[in-house]
Design goal:
This protein is α/β, with parallel strands linked by helices and 320 residues long. The protein contains 13 helices and seven strands. It has helices at residues 22-38, 50-55, 59-64, 76-105, 121-124, 139-151, 171-177, 199-211, 233-242, 244-249, 269-275, 285-291, 298-303, and strands at residues 110-114, 132-137, 159-164, 187-190, 218-223, 278-284, 309-315. Strands 3-2-1-4-5-7-6 form a seven-stranded mixed β-sheet, with helices on both faces. Strand 2, helix 6 (139-151) and strand 3 form a beta-alpha-beta unit. It is globular.
């Protein structure tokens, strides 16, 4: 098995991946957290498709998605971190589910999920009639998801349109070819995406979203603290040691640090959007976790890279 930490970065220009490779594996890990949360006695969110999508990738992933992480054994610290990660994923999912519900109440019927991964909202949320949900991601990732859901007879609750293209390519053209109408207000989502883009690519992504957003459009973003000081070799090694159970018990090696762009300067997402005509509301993830009854230790949340800012914004006038 390739040890992704052996290189400074596992990313390269134009790289691509299947669901169990590179950034694709992070989508499995996130969906596994949603599956584990769904199986809890009193879950914050329900994603009945998450377990199907994760287990189709193999037995190790199936164990990761289980509601009882027996593979952690008696390691109380590992179990506590695992639970906190599950809670974080549940809280962010809840936040963005609520965002889409609010956008629907505002009359938006066109949705674009950027780097959709194993997002199943087109299938599990109750969308108003005539809603269309476009999902953009690597072709292999979208094929895996749609094939798995089709095999289980899953039916979308909106018109579901996968758009297989890399976000570093001309995705707006592919989106329009798939039926997207830039003249209609759109609800955009960038969840778990920005760290996997260089800073200039993040700016370009937001520019293209703005160019293709009619007045009344919404966007929601998960913005991470990408300060290079938190990605020193010492801190990376400490985080990697915390993931030893994944390698030792499940034979999975997910080194997220090696997949992210951490050494470049990038704009603060909320500040960038506000400067370009969007009306922004933001909440630190730790505050949202506390509000929803999932409090976390601030220092530990930061060390694990989950001290994000969850934000939503509305474009009231022309984009600029």
């Amino acid at each position: 098995m390739t040890d992704l930490s052996e290189a400074q970065s596992a990313r390269a220009a134009g790289d691509s991946w299947d669901i169990t490779e590179s950034v694709g594996a992070t989508a499995l890990g996130v969906a596994a957290s949603r599956a584990a949360e769904t199986a809890q006695p009193d879950p914050l969110i329900r994603d009945e498709y998450a377990y199907l999508l994760v287990s189709a990738a193999g037995p190790a992933w199936t164990q990761l998605a289980s509601n009882d992480p027996v593979w952690l054994g008696d390691d109380t610290e590992a179990r506590r971190i695992h639970e906190m990660a599950r809670s974080y994923q549940a809280v962010r999912t809840h936040y963005f589910d609520d965002y889409f519900a609010a956008a629907a109440r505002d009359g938006i019927r066109q949705v674009v999920i950027l780097a959709a991964g194993l997002d199943s909202r087109a299938f599990r949320l109750d969308w108003p009639a005539d809603t269309v949900v476009f999902e953009i991601d690597q072709p292999k990732v979208l094929h895996y998801k749609t094939a798995t859901l089709d095999a289980h007879g899953a039916l979308a609750k909106a018109r579901h349109v996968p758009v297989g293209i890399d976000l570093r390519e001309d995705w707006p053209a592919a989106l329009i070819d798939a039926g997207f109408d830039p003249g209609q207000p759109t609800a955009w989502l960038a969840e778990g995406l920005l760290p996997y883009l260089p800073g200039d690519a993040q700016d370009r992504l937001f520019e293209l979203v703005g160019t293709h957003s009619a007045p009344g459009s919404h966007i929601a973003v998960e913005a991470f603290n990408m300060d290079p000081q938190r990605y020193t070799p010492e801190r990376r090694a400490a985080r990697r040691s915390r993931g030893a159970h994944l390698r030792d018990q499940l034979d999975l090696d997910i080194d997220v640090d090696s997949l992210m762009y951490t050494s470049d300067d990038r704009a603060d997402a909320g500040e960038w959007l506000a400067a370009h005509g969007w009306q922004v509301e933001a909440v630190p993830s730790i505050d949202e976790m506390a509000r929803l009854g999932r409090p976390a230790d601030e220092a530990e949340l930061a060390e694990l890279g989950m001290d994000s800012v969850l934000l939503r914004a509305r474009l009231d006038g022309e984009s600029r």
